[in-house]
Write a structure and sequence with these properties.
The chain is α+β, with helices and mostly antiparallel strands and 266 residues long. The chain has 11 helices and 8 strands. Strands 1-3-2-8-5-7-6-4 form an 8-stranded antiparallel β-barrel, surrounded by 4 helices. Helix 8 packs antiparallel against helix 10.
Length: 266
């Protein structure tokens, strides 16, 4: 697909209006068509204390998640921010093999009468009592070596950790992805982490960056597994390789702890 055609369809949603480098977007579309990696739209709804939380959860449970499933966007994850800045907030994770589906999701939902009926209280909330304060959104593409979202066992993930690694340059960013795909993911597996997804951010804020999600039975289990990861001889060997250690290839790390809503599909 030509670059102009891809950009025209992909940037239709205002929530995704921050443009990534054109060559990365073009490559993302080609990979979707050829290799079939997942794409993810990750939303964060920032709320004010009070009725907004119930209004949002009622909307997500009764309107948004069923409508997204009808479009083939599944499983949809809905998570409350438990530990991290800007609480209260709700995260929504939407996976799809189609980037076009995700970036045009609002226009497609606008054609769904049941969605508008079920979500009327949220969608028609007045300016004096809005449904949420602000919403941030990003579009990611799955790593080549973890091309699909992986659901953890139902009893194995009661809390989730969402981690975002920013890099000082595109080259450092690519090197960090290479590092994760050439050994870091395997070290996570040996340490017993539930690895849900890994995504390269194509459209969003604070580029370049990558985001990934891990699952745990509890916060205390998280601490034990990270200790095992840091003490792993394989991690120490990988992280000391000159290709990854000659300069700081990660300039900032943001991590938040999330708990899934009762109706979350992840």
């Amino acid at each position: 697909m030509e670059r102009r055609a891809f950009l025209t369809s992909s940037l239709a949603v205002s929530a995704l209006a921050v443009t990534a480098p054109a060559e990365r977007l073009k490559g993302a579309q080609e990979n979707r068509e050829g290799k079939g990696r997942d794409f993810y739209q990750l939303r964060c709804y920032h709320l004010s204390n009070g009725p907004q939380s119930k209004l949002c959860h009622d909307f997500f449970r009764d309107a948004l998640v069923p409508a997204l499933n009808h479009l083939g966007v599944t499983p949809v994850g809905v998570f409350n921010l438990t530990i991290g800045p800007e609480t209260p907030s709700i995260y929504v994770l939407m996976p799809s093999l189609s980037a076009e589906t995700l970036v045009n999701v609002e226009s497609r939902l606008s054609q769904d009468a049941e969605y508008f009926k079920a979500g009327a209280a949220f969608l028609n909330a007045p300016a004096a009592a809005p449904a949420f304060a602000r919403m941030e959104s990003s579009l990611l593409q799955a790593f080549e070596k973890m091309p699909r979202l992986t659901l953890p066992p139902a009893t194995a993930a009661r809390v989730f950790e969402l981690r975002t690694y920013e890099s000082p340059s595109d080259q450092d960013h690519k090197r960090k992805i290479e590092m994760m795909e050439s050994g870091e993911q395997e070290i996570f597996a040996k340490a017993g982490f539930s690895q849900v997804f890994y995504g390269d951010t194509l459209i969003g804020s604070r580029l370049p960056n990558l985001t990934y999600m891990l699952g745990y039975e509890s916060v205390s289990e998280r601490d034990k597994k990270w200790a095992a990861f840091r003490d792993s001889p394989q991690w120490k060997a990988l992280s000391s390789q000159p290709r990854y250690a000659f300069e700081s290839i990660v300039s900032n790390i943001t991590n938040v702890i999330l708990t899934p809503a009762a109706y979350s599909q992840i």
